[in-house]
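2 proteins. here.
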Amino acid sequence: MDRLGFFKQGLASVMDAASSIIGLKKAADSFVEVVDEALSNIKTDIGFHLPSIDAAIYDGGASVLENLAAIGYSTIEVGTYKDGKLHYKTPEELKELARKANVKITAAHLNHLLTEPVKSEAEASNEEENVKGEDVIQDVQTEEIAEATINDADKDWWLSALTICKDLGCKYVTMAQFPENPDQATIARYAKYFDTIGEMAAEQGMKFCFHPTKAELTKSDDSASVFEMLAEQTDKEKVWFEIDTLEAVEAATDVCELLKQHDKRVLLLHLHDYGVAGDSGLIDFDSIIKEGIKRGLADIFIEVRDFHLPAMNCVERSYYYVDTLPSIRY
């Protein structure tokens, strides 16, 4: 996607030069031919979700990133963040590895669940006594929690992590973790949490995305999924989404319909299959990418988790499959 930038910068100078040499009419015709030929070879950047091969990064970070670049990957989504390090590397080490391999770090996965509030004995006792009135209590809790703010410890965690991601050059930070079997109050609390993270990310010049898993995408008893409720309750100007194709397939969710429904909010895609991308035949990657580009998709990252071959072989075959898709060239 970044590769289209040089056209915007060079149009005027090219036309001026061509016009002075061969005349305006011929210049226009020649320019169209040149642009058409150049555009036929331009493709969107294909990124890689680095946590897929996290163990390899630990063993040999430099060679891994160089191998990814040699395959054709141009952008990287990092993850495995802990104690100020990503993939067991300091930000400085990771930046240098990326620089030497000539790949850009554009996104990061940061998972940090809310610190659970400590309940007093009175509150705990009150909950036990009011089990029969659970629905009423739930409604009250939902309203109260929706107004709650994230505590200082959680804010400090995000401030440190976001600062590191900004320094790495990230444009997007994504959270792919959510409490299991959440009730309405928990969903409301996390909607507020995500809005707060989104505000903090915006202050650093980044956008915050939520990556739903199969659990959040799955509907039950004809009710809205957790993801749908979060999409409804979060601020469209603060929270965006990263959709994983395999998680969606396992949740019986149509990715193209998700893209249409959440127009312009899905900024990132994980091209994820059972093993090598395209091997299962269950995911229409080409249609998904086409729809995503139409809806404002910013980046795509191949993810590989199920390795039937040596890891880098799967990573390479996934790239070659995606690289052949018509949607990659536009």
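next one coming up
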Amino acid sequence: MGETIAQNRKARHEYAIEETFEAGLVLRGTEIKSVREHHVSLAEAYARVEKGEAWIVGLHIAPWGTTDLRFNHEPKRMRKLLLHRDEIDELLIKTKAKGLTIVPLEIYINDRGLAKMRIGLARGKQTWDRRREIADRDAKRDMARQVADARRR
């Protein structure tokens, strides 16, 4: 897959991911330099389909440090996602009909050196879902700890 640049860990905690897609990102020269330096934040980002095109909104890519301000980019501008037409149509249908949300999951550089984003169709979790998930994770951790203690004896 390549080098992972940034992950949206909060997305997996707050949403149940039903389906994932790989999308290319349309970036300017200074943006890709900042992405390769890991100056990216997915914290407030979300995706939407508008006029037959997919866009990522709220993705923060820090300005490139050594570039003059007039040649640099705006950190939180809307950026286009590159997807196949049938994928865009599927995203549009599922967000309208089922009430799902398009959430960015991670940004990475693939083997060819291109910036890619993994997005997911997600359904919001209720607080009791999150609590159950945390309790299950703690139970698995306790069981693994007990098994490791038993092997040491």
